[in-house]
Amino acid sequence: MNRSIESSSGGRSNNARARSSIAGFTVVEMMAVVAIVAIMATIAAPSFSQLIASQRASAIATDLFVALIDSRSEAIKRNVDSTTAPKAGGWKAGWQTSVQDPNNAAATIVFEDHPAITGVAITGPDVVVYQSSGRVQGNVAPCFAVTATQGSAVVQRWVAVDLSGRPLVRMSTCG
Q: CB under 8 Å to 129, separation ≥6 — which residues?
């Protein structure tokens, strides 16, 4: 009563059957996925350019805002004029905030030195001077335009300073 049982695979071994049932991707399926991913990336790229430009403009506008706040604070604290001015080459080359040295009238104390900026253009006044009262020197309120460009996306932020000395980052033009 010893019967041999034949497999339904027509004599194929178990290893051969296991290999034929392994799932995988065909070249056609893989190329379809690559094409879909390429299309999605092409659609998403302009959105990322806008996001990157927006973040750059906001970051630099915030850096300038903080420099102006610090300058105003130092002017009030030290009871002297405080100056925020661009380095040689304009605002894009960076800026420095300084006060006159109380021990040496010919020297200044630099308490903020911002490095050069890439990918962003800044236009603004030649210098911003805070008086010891915290008010801006002069009769014209300073305004800075910060413009970031990434691909075809162009984003602007403005840093406006009112005559009382309070700076403000805006998404619309000054004045």
A: 81, 82, 83, 84, 136, 137, 138
The CATH code belonging to domain 27-170 is: 3.55.40.10
Q: In Å, how far from its chain's centre is CA 112?
A: 20
Spatial CA neighbour of 141 closest among 95, 96, 175, 98: 175
**Spacing of C-alpha 111 from chain mean position:** 24
95-126: burial string, b at 16+ Cβ within 10 Å, e else: bbbbbbeeeeeeeebebbebeebeebbbebbe
- pLDDT, tens digit, 9 for 90 and up, residues 25-43: 888 888 999 999 888 877 7
